[in-house]
Specification:
Immunoglobulin-like; 3-stranded antiparallel β-sheet; elongated; Pili_assmbl_chaperone_N
Length: about 140
């Protein structure tokens, strides 16, 4: 899934719960360097860094069967297009911590981390096309 940021520097996505229980969700932002190349890398953006993409809210509770709109805001205008990956993952609540080791039981839970690509266009887009006429060997 991909989201594009509009000319005001904003975008959004709706997160929907298919669970029968409340889920606690945390968003993590990664800048994608050298996208679509063998040198592609994801660099984590620290929470509160106001020079990159900001996710609002970064953490939230999602009641069973409900949905939540999450906003993306590009804090500074870009000169070149930038791509980010925002990963949403379920995290345990404070109440999920085992308090007594005697009551500890085995339970297996599989949680998926859902990632979307957020594209931030340049403030002044410039169309550029290069053609390489060299023959392929």
């Amino acid at each position: 899934m991909a989201v594009s940021i509009n000319s005001q520097g904003e975008g959004n996505v709706r997160v929907i719960s298919k669970s029968n229980e409340v889920q606690y969700i945390k968003a993590t932002v990664f800048r994608i360097d050298n996208p679509s190349t063998p040198q592609e890398q994801e660099v984590e953006i620290k929470s509160g860094d106001a020079t990159h993409l900001v996710v609002m809210p970064p953490k939230f509770a999602l009641p069973a069967g409900s949905s939540k709109t999450v906003r993306f805001v590009a804090m500074e205008p870009e000169q070149k297009e930038k791509n980010y990956r925002v990963k949403f993952e379920a995290v345990p609540s404070i109440d999920d911590v085992a308090t007594d080791k005697k009551d500890l039981s085995m339970q297996l839970t599989v949680n998926l981390i859902w990632g979307i690509v957020v594209s931030v266009p340049p403030q002044q887009p410039i169309a550029k096309l290069e053609v390489n006429a060299a023959p392929k060997n």
